[in-house]
Fold this protein.
Amino acid sequence: MTTISKKNQTDSKQSLAIICSSFKNKTEYNLTKEQVDYISNDIKTHDKKFICINTLSRLVCVILVDDKKNHYTSLELIRKNGATITDSLNSEKRMGVSIVNELSNADYSLALAEGIALANYQFIKHKPSAKKTTNTLATINVVDAKVTSQHISNLSIAVDATLKARDLVNEPVNVLNATGLANAFKAMGKSAGFKVEVLNKSKIKQLKMGGLLAVNAGSVDEPTFSVMEYKPKNAKNKKPYVLVGKGVVYDTGGLSLKPTPNSMDLMKCDMAGAAAVGCTMYAIAKAKLNVHVIALVPATDNRPGFNAFAPGDIITMMDGSTVEMLNSDAEGRMILADALHYAKRYKPEMAIELSTLTGAAAAAIGQYGIVSMGTATDEQKTNLTVSGLRMHERLAEFPFWDEYDELIKSDIADQKNLGGPYGGAITAGKFLVKYTDYPYMHFDIAGPAFVTAKDSYRGKGGTGYGVRLLFDFFSNL
């Protein structure tokens, strides 16, 4: 991982990124008059807001920020500039960069460091031939008096947790099955200081988690149910927040087999919700936030083998209700329903569930944000929305009207697991909310959780989507 540090001055031999509102007569950064003139003329002639030059000894980049623009838009643009800087540094085999911020807001320095660090991610552990292409960038020095050590610590934790989530999502199922995912959470709990209990199949049977057991019936690997808890002595909340993450470590669609390519091929990512909540727990504990949080992850793969559940089956869920299972590829809601019912024992302040749940969500808004809906209070929704804007993991709230309940009514069971051709993202949320009796938000991250082409600082493959949003939310409670 890239090291982010606070420094009092720049290193004249290290590459430099300058954040400013204008670039005139900048000779204080050990730049020659010719270099200053070149940058100034390029900005003026081509109306550039971002420019990088290679001075042979180092890379010098200038980012012009208009303080009058929307603050969140500016932060995101700076992060993207950071990704471009990272690519340039690594292509030139540079090892470090200093960030200087001439503006009054420390957020700009932090956003640039964040973009640079997140863009430096690589997943090459299974590629021995990639030694020659390993990134060289190792250090980011922030030279900004407005930035505190606490800022740097929290940023480093958020980046670390996001990259951990990416690693989990990028691992194939032959490396990371349900047990492997649970073991990863145990390791993070030991490292960061939160409790992890993993319920095995026999305990899951005792709890009568019919949804999780039904999805697992076609697999040779046993399911797990991970219960993570961070409870500091000085927690601000009397009732815990509960995070729930979908942990389908691989999804074939079951007997409702997915087509291929570009459907089943990428389904190692179907546990991105689980990765997000587990790695958020890691970040919260590492930062020692004063908040009591519990995370629940039901985990299994979904395969068409053995006694796999079949379309038309009636499944009795943990809460005793029945589901007419009409499509085994709508399996995520089956395992999440048991977890949401399990969460009732904690009487949560609010539950936030993350899942790569529906293609309908991805079709609606693409990879540009999270489809959200739920029963949380207006204040809770506002706080989550602001964190989403700040981290550019934006929430698009969908309606939760009663009419959608009609679409999942079954003639022979309490409800069915498929709503029909319209409103698929909403009917999935409507299915899940029936297992709650507390303020609840459903986050469908099917669009942004895994991308097939490089997306700036989010990279390619697993993005770690949701970790930064949730960490920001809990940091600002």
Notes: Residues 350 and 439 are 5 Å apart (CA to CA). The chain has 13 helices and 20 strands. The two ends are 28 Å apart (CA to CA).
